[in-house]
Amino acid sequence: xxxxxxxxTSPSEKCGVLNVTKIxxxxxxxxxxxxxxxxxxxxSLLLFTKSQGGGTSWVSSVNLLLYSTLELSSFxxxxxxxxxxxxxxxxxxEWASKDKSSKKHVIELxxxxxxxxxxxxxxxxxxxxxxxxxxxxxxxxxWE
Length: 144
Ligand code: I3S
Hints:
Distance between the termini: 37 Å
Bound molecules: (1S,3S,4S)-1,3,4-triphospho-MYO-inositol
Shape: globular
Helix content: 10-25%
Number of helices: 2
Structural class: alpha+beta
């Protein structure tokens, strides 16, 4: 399970495999579509890359390995073209209430642009780390 590996973290760089779905786009509700995503937090940006074949795909595994052995801070990983990117500046996060999802450990992220995402993993300490990193990022960039 690649999500149980611990890549290095710096305040501005974090990565890993997360389950993600949009629930609102530009203020409009959209249909959920949970996908496993190679996720990179870089500065105030959160980048999602589709990780085909789920969290155990070789691409995610190779990315995790590269991150954890080389500690490359500006490297986006292989096959790293982001599927979509959200800017955390001016956003907010909280733990999703039960009516938002039946899944465990779900983070609800709202952006200033009116996009709402759910971010989830079965690994609770992993999700807790992401919750903290996202909260820190939002407060670090609060005045930008
Ligand atoms: O909030 P919802 O609508 O109950 O979310 C579930 C559905 O989106 C479902 O897809 P379809 O209704 O398109 O078949 C998904 O498969 C579920 O994963 C969604 O719920 P959870 O509770 O897993 O977020």
